[in-house]
Fold this protein.
Amino acid sequence: MNPDLVVTVNGRHYRAPRQPLVVVCIDGCEPEYINQAIAAGRAPYFASLRKRGVCLTADCVIPSFTNPNNLSIVTGTTPAVHGICGNYFWDPDARAEVMMNDPKYLRVGTLFAAFADAGAKVAVVTAKDKLRELLGHRLKGICFSSEKADQVTLAANGIENILARVGLPLPSVYSASLSEFIFAAGVELLAHERPDIMYLSTTDYVQHKAAPGIDAANDFYAMMDGYLQRLDAMGAAIVVTADHGMNAKTDAFGRPNVIYLQDSLDAAFGEGSTRVILPITDPYVVHHGALGSFATVYTIGAEAARAAGAHIAALRGVLSVHPRAEAARQFELAPERIGDLVVVAERLSVLGSSASRHDLSGLTVPLRSHGGVSEQQVPLLANRAPRVELPAGRRWRNFDAFDLALNYLQ
Ligand SMILES: [Zn+2]
């Protein structure tokens, strides 16, 4: 594409990439994962960035869940603007709890669609197919998930025959391989398609199971380290960030600290008087049992909201309760896509609805999860030194990844 072009997306200006740009979103990447992998000698590439690149700590958007943050990163803006405030919400028009993975809920265009329209070659590879449609919305380029890499077609995904080209078997949706496939595909695409902009977004299967420094975690970061090294050697500018962090949500014996909000509210105010929605809920709940540190509650009327809010605020493990307008302001959310109350749990606790609605049998290891402000800090790393000085004191966000890459590093 024309290197002198400036592309404006959602009110922000971006210079055209002067070399292939790869932005990586490592799902659930608490900064400590990289730190521990470096300390164990398993991530020499990450370690090398300290001398020649950028290492910032950025804030993700709240709820610290996958979809709101991936959409923030690829639109360069907040959920208040792009509209994806959770994986799941109560749709008042449909009068149903629905997944927010349909592009009809996305209110703005992505950087990818805008750059592709401006002539850039764009490639997006994500782990789970649930994200693919949102990330690829109106994109004239390559976009597929490793989950459904066997079903990729030129018409739907802008590329074909990807399994054979990558040379790896179709990975299981619950595996580290689902993410490895993304990086292997990234190397293949950079070598043979040479996209101007590539976005690789992994899954947090490993982080939900393994704490920073544990062998399984270090193995995973060593895998990514190797692929990033290869992408770097092929001439890519690389920015690495995360959608959210990850923390243990258990007591000293590894038992989950769960606050069953719906049960508690039903006992206090009667069944049917409130509706607890857990925006972490998605079809892939085995590794977290749909338990995260963020919930939203629908009530009937302002007085009921006040009473429910006071009740919830007194529960042990609850960090904060916010009325709708305040939550929308503080957490940059679209008020009509959240309930009358937003509830955030403390670092070691998660919020559930009713105990009977959570299947915890899939939790084979102590629960690790996210969603709260305790998982807001994420890495923002790059393999290039800044061309212009980075503004002192700036609050960097994970959705500044493309701003950093295109406006400061080249
Ligand atoms: Zn995630």
In short: The longest helix spans residues 215-233.
